[in-house]
Amino acid sequence: MNFNIAVIPGDGIGPEIVREARKVLDKVASVYGHTFNYTEVLMGGVSIDACGVPLSDEALETAKKSDAVLLGAVGGKVGVDKWYELPPNLRPEAGLLAIRKGLGLFANLRPAYLYNELKGACPLKEEVADKGFDMIIVRELTGGLYFGARKTEEVDGVMTATDTLTYNENEIRRIAIKAFEIAMKRRKNVISVDKANVLDSSRLWKKVVTEVSKDYPEVTLSHMLVDNCAMQLVKDPAQFDVVLTENMFGDILSDEASMITGSIGMLSSASLGSGSLGLYEPSHGSAPDIAGTNKANPIATILSASMMLRYSFNLDKEADAVDNAVREVIADGIRTIDLMSDGMKLVSCTEMGDEIANRIK
Ligand code: IPM
Ligand code: MG
Predict the structure, then answer these.
(1) Which of the listed residues 29, 273, 293, 325 has the most CB atoms within 10 Å of its CB?
(2) Is a pLDDT exceeding 90 seen at residue 270?
(3) Residues in contact with 106: Cβ distance below 8 Å, sequence separation at least 6, in sequence order
């Protein structure tokens, strides 16, 4: 089959890791007889440099017309990169928020899985790590605090800043449905995370999620307060299957979940809307410190490409081939620097891409 992929290398290590993901996709194409056409799109700091905005209208149009978007990372260093002297709505990260909103990608899927071979890198106690974990965070992505009205003003001579957290029932319902659909393909357990003991938006969240659960009698639903969830993630991560939550809680909890896997360099993500178009990006950032050194771990981006095959192109067999190739590479002791330990073979970003591509069958 034939697919058009908009590729956004972005900033920092973005171009390096995206190159390796394309290498793996090209191998998939040749083994399974598909054609992937790539169109490069500017976003983030590189787009600010080239056209003055973090995401141009043309860039968004190209993304809209594609079958899927593959993204490396955007952003640089505050205090170092001149992009951060611009107003917040013109900084690199604003491009990311704009493309999510512009493509209607309201569902952010962030799997966090502990590989057996990487248990040593897990910062949790041995008896907790030994149990392993395999969860997916389903984060609402286009509502809540990150998209509400905000302002900074002087009120009676005092500087005052306001952000607003709004959710309507339709926004909650559609993300809840996604979470339950995903749970049906997994261990059929949804934990919905909120702050219903304080927030109105959370009370509505809890009510709507409970309503949606009635359509999925096979799925067990429970509710957890976000502060407790932050604690449970380090105390007993094995209890989680699907974690359903709003935008900011999901942002924070997904970083925590990624940390306990031992390396943020392993975690993929998918952002989906109501159709098949999705945006696929590693959960980590642009790591400007190691940009251009060929040291980055491309696995999160390669696994994001695998999610693209699965969720946007419906190519499950091909996605399995990528996931298995990554598992084999880990089992064979091949490591980028972030995962390196005694007795393992250290490879560069490029070599890691080669090793994975060579194992696609
Ligand atoms: C993420 C990032 C972004 C977010 C930032 C860069 C706007 O932290 O993808 O988690 O909060 O969504
Ligand atoms: Mg984040």
Answers:
(1) 325
(2) yes
(3) 140, 141, 142, 143, 171, 174, 175, 272, 273
Q: Which amino acid is at 85?
A: E
pLDDT in tens, 161-198: 999 999 999 999 999 999 999 999 899 999 999 999 99
Match 């709505």 to its residue by tokens.
89
Q: Let me know: does 348 contact 336? Beta carbons within 8 Å.
A: yes
Q: At 180, list the tokens.
A: 């339950």
Whole-angstrom CA distances from 251 to 180, 221, 222, 230, 241 are 20, 21, 20, 12, 17
Among residues 269, 278, 270, the alpha carbon closest in space to that of 300 is found at 269
CB atoms < 10 A from the CB of 246, how many?
Answer: 28
Q: From 96, 106, 150, give the residue whose CB has the most ligand 1 atoms within 8 Å, as the site to mutate.
A: 96
Query: In this structure, what token pair is assigned to residue 234?
Result: 């380090």
Q: Atom 11, ligand 1: which residue's CA is nearest?
A: 251
Q: 334 forms bridges with which residues in the sheet?
A: 345
Tell whether ligand 1 has an atom less than 6 A from the beta carbon of residue 251.
Answer: yes
Q: What type of residue sits at position 124? A: L
CB of residue 112 inside a 6 A radius of ligand 1: no
For residue 194, the 8-state DSSP code is E
pTM over 0.85: yes
Catalytic residue status for 214: no
Nearest of 199, 169, 92, 184 to residue 138 by alpha carbon: 184
Query: Which residue of 8, 83, 97, 254 sits with most ligand 1 atoms within 8 Å of its CB, as the best mutation to test the pocket?
Result: 97
Q: How far is the CA of 256 from the centre of ligand 1 (A)?
A: 13
